[in-house]
Design goal:
The protein is of the alpha+beta class. The chain has a single domain, classed as Gcn5-related N-acetyltransferase (GNAT) (Aminopeptidase). A hairpin with a 5-residue loop joins strand 1 and strand 2. The longest helix has 15 residues. The chain is built from 4 helices and 8 strands; from the N terminus they run E-E-H-H-E-E-E-H-E-H-E-E. The protein is globular. The chain starts with 5 loop residues before the first strand and ends with a strand. Helices cover about 30% and strands about 35% of the residues. It has an 8-stranded mixed β-sheet with strand order 1-2-3-4-5-6-8-7. The structure holds coenzyme A. Coenzyme A binds next to strand 5, helix 3 and helix 4. Coenzyme A (COA) binds next to strand 5, helix 3 and helix 4.
């Protein structure tokens, strides 16, 4: 599904459009994922692992658009993606139908300006409207700012996946699993 379009102003005075990315935004979304994957190690991928298969991303965006419950909350500056949030049903099976998974990334230049909070607020509201009963996520144990932000929105820690991530330098990070009941 597509969310309603909104225009907001972040603390640096820039006007940002919040809407769902569509297939027409595939290239910009790939570029955003490439950039954010290189800015911190808190993303799942290293930049070179990000797909630039535009046709494949277009298909995925089309699938999300046609879904009754999955959606994206995407932030655009001058029609380019600077923030990406996705909410997807955990598995397309009845026993999982109450659970959604959320992931978010914002380009470093636009962090700490209130954008993440706005995107999460929209996502929580929309997920509830779509019938989900709980929103889940996984985060690097040392991503303190993100964890603080999730806690601000009522996400609670409920588990640890030990050594979920192995970085190129050979060190491991646990994954903190969080849930918000809607
Ligand atoms: C984690 C992430 C999504 C947070 O997004 P963000 O846009 O920086 O978050 P916000 O700006 O809304 O909030 C973070 C802090 O910014 C500050 N802030 C919030 N609103 C603000 C405003 N209007 N003006 C100035 N500062 C503000 C606050 O210090 C806030 O902390 P608080 O909630 O304790 O007050 C973003 O940093 C990010 O994408 N990081 C890289 C990728 C990543 O780690 N993703 C998460 C993977 S699980």
């Amino acid at each position: 599904m597509l969310i309603e379009n909104r225009e907001i102003t972040i603390s640096n005075g820039k006007r940002i459009i919040i809407r769902s990315a569509t297939d027409a935004d595939a290239k910009s979304l790939c570029q955003h994922r490439y950039v954010t994957s290189g800015e911190t190690y808190f993303m799942a991928r290293y930049p070179e692992e990000c797909s630039f298969d535009i046709a494949d991303v277009e298909q995925k965006l089309l699938h999300t658009r046609n879904s009754a419950c999955d959606f994206m909350v995407t932030a655009f500056l001058d029609n380019e993606v600077i923030g990406d949030l996705g909410v997807t049903q955990l598995r397309n099976l009845t026993k999982y139908s109450h659970r959604a998974y959320m992931g978010i990334s914002i380009q470093k230049e636009y962090c700490n300006m209130g954008l993440g909070s706005i995107m999460i607020e929209y996502a929580v509201k929309q997920a509830k409207e779509n019938g989900f009963e709980q929103l889940e996520l996984g985060v690097f144990e040392d991503n303190i700012e993100a964890i603080r932000l999730y806690e601000k929105f009522g996400f609670q820690k409920y588990g640890i996946q030990p050594r979920a991530f192995k970085l190129k330098d050979g060190t491991y990070r646990d994954e903190l699993i969080m849930v918000k009941m809607l």
